[in-house]
Specification:
- This protein has ten helices and no strands.
- With 220 residues, it is mainly alpha-helical.
């Protein structure tokens, strides 16, 4: 069977992402991308959207994540644009994909006032879903361990972040991350499908935090 251009492009994109993230931290590795991509494709089945933009945005969203490149937020979009140009994708689609990558992160939400396409909303919801629930819990502690942070310190209280730079600068214990970000994501979902899925994962995290607190206090 002869593959279409889009099928070839997606196959090459998957290989490119795997190569780029070969040494990535486990919460931001290929398997994170795989989950976000799978979730985004599943959500797009229920919504009228440009499926190619959704898939490319999901697959490429964490290339050169600024967290692992000294805060450089321009590197990832530049790498993505260069790759897609080499694959002869049209400029309009490239711009859509790069816009999603540049603006979908949680830290951007503090000041983002642009228009979100339906493709943007799907990819952002899929990425945020992977940050909550059982997998979100695992990813939070994986990243905290990677950064050498304590998983809990009762003397360090959660903060309210009002801007992206303040959020990025946080070195708080991992449990604080639930109150400073993860528990907020349920109410930041863009699509009805995202909201429905987020509610289930949110409730799971609340149960985990209650169990954690009871164990910490020696109640259980």
């Amino acid at each position: 069977m002869t593959l279409t251009y889009q099928e070839k492009l997606l196959s090459k994109t998957i290989q490119f992402v795997k190569e780029q993230l070969e040494e990535a931290e486990s919460g931001h590795d290929w398997w994170h991308i795989h989950r976000v991509h799978t979730t985004a494709v599943s959500m797009a089945q229920h919504i009228n959207a440009n499926k190619l933009v959704v898939e490319l945005g999901a697959l490429l969203h964490d290339i050169a994540d600024s967290k692992f490149h000294d805060g450089n937020e321009e590197l990832g979009p530049a790498i993505v644009r260069s790759f897609l140009l080499r694959e002869h994708l049209d400029e309009e689609t490239i711009n859509e994909v790069v816009f999603i990558i540049e603006n979908m992160a949680f830290k951007r939400s503090f000041h983002f006032d642009g228009a979100k396409s339906i493709e943007f909303k799907i990819v952002q919801d899929a990425d945020r879903l992977d940050a909550i629930g059982a997998i979100g819990i695992a990813r939070a502690f994986s990243y905290g361990g990677y950064k050498g942070r304590p998983f809990f310190d009762p003397e360090v209280l959660p903060e309210t972040h009002n801007d992206g730079e303040h959020y990025k600068a946080s070195k708080a214990p991992t449990i604080n991350h639930f109150y400073e970000k993860l528990l907020l994501l349920k109410d930041q979902m863009n699509t009805e499908e995202g909201k429905k899925r987020a509610l289930v994962r949110h409730e799971y995290m609340l149960g985990f935090l209650k169990q954690f607190d009871d164990e910490w206090k020696g109640i259980l």
